[in-house]
Amino acid sequence: MSACRAIRPTTSSPSRSVKRIGRAGPVTNANPLRRLDCVFAAIDHGSLRQAARALGVRESSVSRNIVAIEQSLDMQLFDRSAHGVRLTKAGKRWAGSARAHYEALYDALSAGKQPYRETDTLRLGLSGLAGRDFLGRLIRRFGALYPKIDVVIKDIAHDQGLAAIRRRELDILFTGAHVAMSRSTESFGQGQLFVLLPAHHRLAAASAVRWSDLANERVFVPSFWSGSASEIPLAGHSDATQAQICTASEATAILNVQLGQGVTLAEAGFARAVSPEFTIWRPLKGNNSAGLINAVWLGSNPKRALLRLLGTAKRLADPRPRGRPTAWR
Fold first, then answer.
1. Please, which residues bridge with residue 31 across strands?
2. Residue 22, in any domain of the structure
3. Which end of the chain is more exposed for a tag (fewer CB within 10 A), N or C?
């Protein structure tokens, strides 16, 4: 089964904010930690609506809990406008010192959970069109170096993956989204994207395809993709009249292409390895023709295996000496 939604082009650039890494669930006025969830989600998103979406609650609930914190502190944390929320100068000072205690409290609450103690197992999340080639090479290299460490890989939506890291259900997430620098992050380059077309498609004779060529197409993306319309490169083209972005499983997406009902995307390695009947691969060219390969993890994760994986990944991506990644404490 697949699900589609129409998007219209916009001239705004893709948002670089990342959904809140926090526990989803009811936010009640009686729980100070839940109030802090609301505050830091609003900081990370710059929007009460997006914060509410990340936490799985109503926007009014986020607003009430932020107001409760502000009243408790006798301090205005945010400037509010029609465009979102932004920390005041006083709010920035408070958030800078409060975040470390907030994250440490979650670490302490998570310390007794089973995934935290399984130091011989690494759980990796994958969210994005690119990264599978790199991840495959990484796991093979890592397995040869550390054969006693089990690696579990899971396809997961970006925001769900961030929440899973906070809950210690994942150790690291490889994503195509931009990641806020307040978190432990590392970039491992980009992966060239290809378009799978029906064999008799009007673009089949072209040597390469641009995003603008797909303006009126139904584009199938992985079921775990959960970005907004503005994060789709096609949406940023002024000559794109309308596009349909459809989520589907890999098999369903390919079947739809074979039936001439749309196109789908994958990175170069998949395009080389898989050649479905009645279809043809063409590389993307121009802006946004490669997907990002970024990693995010919890800086306080105590697993040595994670540090070894990151070291292996950095050497694989760039054999030259590199500095330490930015830490999310």
1. none
2. yes
3. N
